[in-house]
Amino acid sequence: MSAEDDAKPGVQPPSSSAVEAVRVSERVVYLKALPLRDLSDVDLIKKELSDGNILIVRIVPLARKSVDDVKKAVNELRGYAESIKGDIARLGEERIVLTPPTVRIWKAKAEVAAA
């Protein structure tokens, strides 16, 4: 008896894209906290993001050395996150969060001050 004989009438086997979606959904996603100590850490952060992990990055260690380097790093990470259709947001004054394309960050609109 073949697999076709076991198939229920009117029921199609899953497409390869549906099977791939299941495989993707089975992938483990980690939430990682990483420090940004140096501009060279940007490459590690990009790799983690491209691996599908969610990152909380503490920017204070680099900010103590150079505010300009923090701006460069954050701008580079913003550009990278946008290029892979990920997301980035600030968490207070000391951290940023980066997410892969499968996760969106809810961002509250700034409240308009009453006149």
Keywords:
115 residues, alpha+beta, Translation Initiation Factor IF3, 4-stranded mixed beta sheet, 5 helices
Provide a quick synopsis of the model.
The chain is an alpha+beta fold and 115 residues long.
Question: What do these coordinates show?
Answer:
It is a single chain. By secondary structure, this protein is of the alpha+beta class. It has a domain at 29-99: SepF-like protein (Translation Initiation Factor IF3, 2-Layer Sandwich). It is 40% helix and 17% strand. It has helices at residues 3-6, 16-26, 41-50, 60-63, 67-83, and strands spanning 31-35, 54-58, 87-91, 95-99. The protein has a four-stranded mixed sheet. β3 (87-91) and β4 form a beta hairpin. α3 runs parallel beside α5. The longest helix is centred in the middle third of the chain and has 17 residues, at 67-83. It is elongated. Mean pLDDT is 84; it is low at 1-5 and 111-115.
Topology:
Elements lengths: L2 H4 L9 H11 L4 E5 L5 H10 L3 E5 L1 H4 L3 H17 L3 E5 L3 E5 L16
Parallel strand pairs: 1-2
Antiparallel strand pairs: 2-4, 3-4
